Amino acid sequence: MLISELVYSRILPAIRGVLAHRLVNSGLSQRKVAEYLEITQPMVHKILRKPVEKYYSELENLGISRATVDQYIDILVYFVLRGEYEKYTYMAFTIINHLASRAVCSIYSYKFTELCTSGVLRDPHIDYYKSALLRTISIKGLERVIPEVGSNLAYATQTPANISDIIGLTGGIVKTISGVVYYGEPMYGGSRHVGRILAEASRFNRDIKFCFNTKCTSKLRSVLEESGYSVEVTGPHLREEDFWSELTSALSKKPVAICDLGGLGLEPIMYIFTKSLGELEDILRLIIGAVSG
Questions:
Q1: Are 114 and 147 in a shared domain?
Q2: Whole-number mean pLDDT of the chain?
């Protein structure tokens, strides 16, 4: 009862408040916002009369940071603006439940000691992703193949219908002087770009579970091809639509990697697709070896 009361009396109203402000600022009418929030238009008007900072403060008082809220709201806005109501609904449900777990363990941990310490409220797929992420970023020399734009690790727990079925970082993986670090947090739909690419790849190869992006050079392409891995090349592109159409065509050939040559001001990027974490680690060590000599 305590968890449901927390959701309906505090978390849901605050999330609705932030989301309503963001959607209106993105150009949606109050009528359309009301449809997505499943409330009346007069209620949307009432919500918007309250400053968005008030809603952020209410969530921060529950132990939910503004950065976390923004990451989740970004995902919801993305689906709304694309008119993908079903995906939006599924993701909203997932987010509310995740935030409820956070809030309960932040405020009422003394009442839910076992839940908050034993990991009962944790998603085993997220836990697996975290271990896979740590294994990946601990590979020696990984920083040598991380592109300037950064990398991301996408993981499909099952054959994905869309990016909401794929776990990725809301931030990314970047290189530092001493190696690599990641920022953001793992969540379903967390990586829009690499996650979407993995979802597209899964349409042609249902066994694919992982996608990781690196820099792409002729040397890296060659070492993969010489080792028997299939590599497709796409680009360069002038428009984003060209990127996706060429990518889909390349994915239909079920390659292990796609080297995209980028476009105006965009660096070449390699997308690696594997059925297992071990296979991904082997490929990363192979291309790292090619640039470490």
A1: no
A2: 88
